[in-house]
């Protein structure tokens, strides 16, 4: 350190942090701090601990990224282009033949403006020759005046018109002879994915998978014809009303916009938020670029916000090239890890690390969707990079995690269960042993044993059931969820009422008057982490033994008719008529009475 | 806010003589309302339902204010508010999530996935509260310091610019950036501390 400067002086630094802001650091102190790395660090430490700096940063970043966008508004890149009004748009049209119409374009009666962007405007119109509603996209005048842009516009529009696919908006006509060229497309009544996300926030997993699968399907058809979309983003995905169908619009149009605007002003009219890194870097792109954009779009559907955001387009593009987006589960913990793995895979910076074709993506998302909708009959697709994240998940134990991992574990188990049924006669002796030894049968802490599953399935398969769970504050409540979830899976399609009575004693402060309110039902005291499952069912068959070598006798087994008690390690069942059973059932009956009153 | 809140306020003013407590209540509502809202949303509540829940939590808190007033050993109002609100929120979120469990299989699945474990819920509320306090404190500080002071903090710690880059951007010398950013942090810490001490 330079001897001529003042020495390090914590007191002087601290004085500068005190409330009185009129106190400005002296010239010497400023010079010292600029040259002394120790003091540079020290002043930060004096102001607040590292945890404090991190905490504040995380809280603010999150505020910026969520509900408080009004306070720190990011530039809306789509709107940085001209905001069109009906009267402006009207100037591009011939006078209407009906007074209630906005204007006319050739044989099309234009009804109203339905959208605008950097590229131009979109009208809802009526095709007077074919008597059908259409959507007309008119190229913005500043683009229309550029010769190459016009040529490309017409070439790409014609190529796009050749893509006939149920998930691509059909193009009826391309008019390029006029002053402002336009494209006539099928009118899709509904909303764009962007507006759905704007009003709902993050979408549900099934919906995301379905939309993703359909978009990948449409992309696959276009890619096979050598056409790259280049501008896959939520506002280009139309969701048909009343039908679960997503359609890709604006094929090939981004290219026309690129040519004209980049040469003219260096300004990209659309949003770069969904660009691939190779696109942002101005390199040549292929079909895999669309897959990156599809990944970004799915990210947005999962989190309600685009993955890369910054105050201007240039910084957005820099982030796309350099940084990783905030992990999805930090924003929306309901998205399972395998889904985030799929999206991460699509959003690999390098094109060769992504899935390589839209067809692969479609097949994968389809398999995922089947799995989510019918976990019993469709197992989760296994891919090397999915297995990897699964092992990560196990380390991170939370109830949501557990549920999602359950789905995966379960499907495997069900196959085993079916196998077990096929091998039933062999297993019977074992089952019998098991049911006679009801106390303290050890189950693996993280998973029900096959025998347990079989028995549960049998137990629950006959009557309409009421399951009462009492979840207590305590560590392994995840097990209770797992079991309830399991029960539900096994009972798929059956009428079940789950009544879960929660009491969380250790979280309750006894000074708190609210905590003193008695729960509706007092269940017997349980150890930490225990819960009770009461199955109100009459004759439930829960065990069976061989009648003779040719057949089976299903014998009503009273031991499990009413309830099972489990904790993380043991399960126990009290016999019918026992004191415990009487107590619980009477409590249960009174709870049911209370409820009906 | 809606009439319920106004009534709440009026009845509280009658009961709470201490102006400081009144301010604590307002501040607390501003911070804890979003906490309950955000946690409820993260548990799959619709926005409108989450709004209702916030109201209900505060109504529950208000209804027990008299208990607090009657206590001889009553401690800090703010600490008490936090405790009551946390318990009320845990209760109500769990009740709401389970009340209408399953008329058929599919519905039951949706609800099951929403079922929060009370302990996990309680810590989610605390975590969210901590974040919200940070956020609230940051906003207060932002309002109270000069714009360039705030920018020095913002550019270096949120946007992660180097001190030199921030100095160039704000057209000042790096030394000023070091001081300004830490001043902001020191103010935030002061505000946050008020809450920390009372938990």
What do you see in this structure?
- Chain A is built from 22 helices and 16 strands.
- Chain A has helices at about 10-15, 25-35, 35-45, 50-65, 85-90, 140-145, 145-160, 195-200, 205-225, 255-265, 275-280, 285-305, 315-320, 330, 335-345, 360-375, 385-395, 400-420, 425-435, 450-460, 475-490, 580-595, and strands spanning about 105, 110-115, 120-125, 130-140, 170-175, 180-185, 190, 235-240, 245-250, 465-470, 495-505, 530-535, 545-550, 550-555, 565, 570.
- In chain A, a hairpin with a 2-residue loop joins strand 1 (about 105) and strand 2 (about 110-115).
- Chain B folds into 2 domains: about 5-135, no CATH class; about 145-200, Arc Repressor Mutant, subunit A, CATH 1.10.10.
- Chain B has 10 helices and no strands.
- In chain B, helix 2 (about 20-40) packs across helix 7 (about 120-145), helix 3 (about 45-65) packs across helix 5 (about 75-100) and helix 8 packs across helix 10.
- The radius of gyration of chain B is 21 Å and the shape is elongated.
- Chain B starts with a helix and ends with a helix.
- Mean pLDDT of chain B is about 70; it is low at about 1-15 and about 100-115.
- Chains A and B meet through helix 2, helix 3, helix 4, helix 18 and helix 21 of A and helix 2, helix 5, helix 6, helix 7 and helix 8 of B.
Helix content of chain A: 40-55%
Report on the biggest sheet of chain A: 6 strands, antiparallel
Strand content of chain B: under 5%
Nearest-angstrom radius of gyration of chain B? 21 Å
Count of the separate structural domains of chain A: 4
CATH topology of the largest domain in chain A: Transferase(Phosphotransferase), domain 1
- Supply the CATH architecture of the largest domain in chain A: Orthogonal Bundle
Assign the structural class of chain B, choosing from mainly alpha, mainly beta, alpha/beta, alpha+beta, or little secondary structure. mainly alpha
Structural class of chain A: alpha+beta
Q: How many beta-strand elements of chain B? A: 0
In whole angstroms, how far apart are the ends of chain B?
A: 27 Å
Can you give the mean pLDDT of chain B?
Answer: 71
Mean pLDDT of chain A: 63
Q: For the terminal residues of chain A, how far apart are their CA atoms?
A: 81 Å
Contiguous low-pLDDT stretches of chain A (5 residues minimum) are 66-83, 256-270, 387-448, 455-581, 583-588
């Amino acid at each position: 350190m330079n001897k001529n400067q003042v020495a390090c002086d914590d007191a002087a630094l601290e004085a500068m942090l005190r409330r009185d802001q009129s106190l400005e650091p002296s010239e010497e102190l400023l010079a010292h701090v600029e040259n002394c790395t120790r003091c540079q660090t020290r002043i930060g430490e004096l102001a607040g601990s590292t945890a404090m700096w991190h905490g504040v940063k995380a809280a603010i970043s999150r505020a910026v990224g969520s509900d408080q966008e009004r306070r720190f508004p990011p530039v809306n890149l789509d709107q940085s282009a001209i905001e069109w009004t009906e009267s402006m748009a009207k100037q591009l049209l011939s006078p209407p033949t009906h007074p209630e119409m906005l204007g006319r374009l050739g044989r099309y009666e234009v009804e109203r403006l339905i959208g605008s962007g950097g590229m131009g405007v979109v009208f809802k119109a009526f095709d007077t020759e074919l008597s059908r509603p259409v959507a007309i996209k008119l190229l913005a005048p500043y683009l229309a005046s550029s010769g190459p842009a016009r040529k490309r516009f017409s070439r790409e529009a014609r190529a796009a018109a050749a893509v006939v696919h149920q998930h691509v908006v059909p193009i009826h006509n391309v008019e390029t002879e006029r002053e402002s060229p336009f494209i006539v497309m099928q009118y899709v009544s509904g909303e764009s994915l962007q507006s759905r996300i704007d009003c709902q926030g993050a979408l549900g997993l099934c919906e995301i998978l379905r939309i993703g699968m359909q978009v990948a399907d449409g992309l696959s058809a276009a890619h096979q014809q050598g056409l790259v979309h280049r501008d896959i983003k939520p506002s280009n995905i139309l969701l048909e009303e009343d039908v679960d169908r997503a359609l890709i619009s604006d094929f090939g149009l981004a290219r026309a916009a690129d040519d004209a605007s980049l040469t003219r002003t260096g300004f990209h009219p659309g949003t770069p938020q969904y660009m691939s890194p190779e696109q942002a870097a101005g390199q040549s792109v292929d079909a895999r670029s669309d897959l990156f954009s599809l990944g970004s779009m799915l990210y947005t559907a999962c989190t309600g916000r685009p993955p890369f955001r910054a105050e201007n387009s240039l910084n957005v593009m820099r982030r796309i090239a350099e940084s990783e987006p905030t992990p999805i589960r930090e924003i929306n913990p309901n998205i399972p890890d395998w889904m985030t793995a799929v999206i991460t895979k699509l959003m690999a910076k390098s094109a060769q690390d992504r899935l390589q074709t839209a067809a692969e993506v479609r097949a994968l998302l389809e398999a995922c969707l089947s799995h989510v909708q019918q976990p019993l009959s469709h197992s989760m697709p296994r891919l090397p990079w999915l297995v990897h994240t699964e092992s990560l998940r196990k380390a991170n134990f939370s109830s949501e995690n557990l549920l999602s991992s359950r789905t995966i574990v379960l499907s495997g188990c069900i196959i085993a269960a079916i196998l077990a049924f096929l091998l039933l006669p062999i297993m019977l002796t074992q089952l019998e042993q098991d049911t006679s030894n009801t106390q303290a049968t050890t189950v693996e802490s993280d998973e029900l044993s096959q025998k347990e599953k079989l028995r549960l399935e049998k137990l629950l398969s006959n009557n309409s059931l009421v399951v009462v769970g009492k979840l207590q504050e305590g560590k392994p409540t995840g097990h209770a969820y797992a079991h309830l979830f399991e029960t539900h899976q096994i009972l798929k399609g059956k009428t079940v009422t789950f009544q879960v009575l929660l009491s969380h004693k250790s979280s309750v402060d006894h000074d708190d008057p609210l905590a003193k309110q008695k729960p509706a039902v007092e269940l017997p005291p349980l150890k930490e982490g225990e819960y009770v499952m009461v199955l109100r069912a009459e004759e439930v068959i829960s065990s069976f033994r061989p009648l003779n070598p040719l057949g089976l006798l299903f014998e009503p087994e009273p031991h499990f008719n009413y309830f099972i008690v489990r904790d993380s390690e043991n399960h126990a069942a009290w016999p019918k008529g026992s004191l415990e059973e009487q107590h619980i059932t009477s409590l249960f009956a009174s709870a049911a009475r209370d409820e009906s009153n | 806010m809606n009439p319920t809140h106004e009534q709440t306020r009026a009845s509280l003013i009658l009961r709470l003589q201490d102006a400081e407590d009144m301010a604590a209540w307002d501040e607390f509502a501003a911070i804890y309302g979003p906490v309950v809202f955000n946690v409820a949303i993260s548990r799959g509540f619709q926005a409108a339902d989450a709004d209702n829940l916030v109201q209900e939590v505060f109504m529950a808190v208000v209804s027990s204010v008299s208990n607090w007033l009657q206590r001889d050993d009553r401690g800090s109002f703010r600490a008490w508010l936090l405790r009551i609100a946390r318990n009320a929120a845990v209760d109500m979120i769990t009740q709401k999530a389970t009340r209408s469990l399953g008329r058929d299989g599919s519905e039951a699945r949706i609800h099951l996935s929403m079922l929060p474990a009370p302990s996990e819920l309680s810590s989610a509320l605390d975590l969210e509260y901590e974040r919200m306090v940070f956020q609230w404190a940051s906003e207060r500080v932002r309002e109270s310091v000069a714009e360039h002071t705030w920018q020095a903090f913002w550019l270096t710690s949120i946007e992660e610019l180097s001190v030199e880059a921030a100095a160039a951007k704000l057209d000042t010398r790096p030394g000023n950036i070091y001081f300004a950013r830490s001043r902001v942090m020191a103010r935030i810490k002061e505000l946050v501390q008020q809450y920390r001490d009372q938990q």
